[in-house]
Target: Bile acid:sodium symporter family protein
Amino acid sequence: MRTEQQNASPDPEDPAGPAAPSPAAAEQRGARRAVTVFPVLVLLAGVLGLLAPGTFAGGGEAVPYLLGVVMFCMGVTMTPQDFRGVAKRPWAVALGLVAHYVFMPGLGWLVAHALNLPPQLAAGVILVGCAPSGTASNVVTYLARGDVALSVSVATVSTVVAPLVTPPLTLLLAGAYLPVDAGSMVVDILKTVLLPVLAGLVVRLVASRLVTRALPVLPWLSALTIAVIVAVVVAGSADAIKSAAALVMLAVVLHNGLGLALGYGAGRLARLGEPSSRAMAFEVGMQNSGLAASLATAHFSPLAALPAAVFSVWHNVSGALAAAWLSRKKA
Model:
């Protein structure tokens, strides 16, 4: 769920603002509502998958295609300015990228090891850590009054480089738990992430007027699609959830919480300033759990996808809570 907050006024709902809101302001309101409702929607989808697993029988084969829809929506919201932002602040973007792909994979391994997770769950937690930035990270950064331009730049680059980074990191850290076919994983990420993102970017460039009218709807389409992914993943491991749910929840809360803290700390240590440090927190701590669920289902098992399903709910809840707290602090 990306949006163009960096091009809009600080508060599009300010009554002192223009009478006719811009398309960017309308998109912001849609994205803010979607990211608020999203955790509830995903939680309901998970409950549905748990209570009626037969409804989603065989749905695992559709997960990569559903993820492709989410990534296409992300690509459609991209603009050339996102890439120019990388060139304008290469040091900050590079720091965010390194922090994301060092802290979260490492934390995934540490949490799996510390909690002595079973191999399937350990691999799933590590895979979540090796995924690129979450699709809602820049919206949450906006709500936290953080540096949205930096957030968008880091999220964009982390997604683009995912085919080159995620598979070898997963092989390195999760290979001790389960066999990892890094080559096949590269192909899957190219098909389900990079190609849909590029297709969405092309559509944005050639049909900008049509896309502009559709932008407020895209966060909702992404949220609904991710909810379906979660329902399918939970249904596939419904029998194991009763015994593993508490352990997985603990692993996810530790993984996400430490990631948010270390991301923020890295920004402060690098003296990026408070708004940029807030962006770093969410770009490090929030993951593309939809991709992790898709890869875990395809390469490991439905049980290995369970941490990604739980992460989908929790990181949006924790992100929203952190954003509410940070927005009340002086930026």
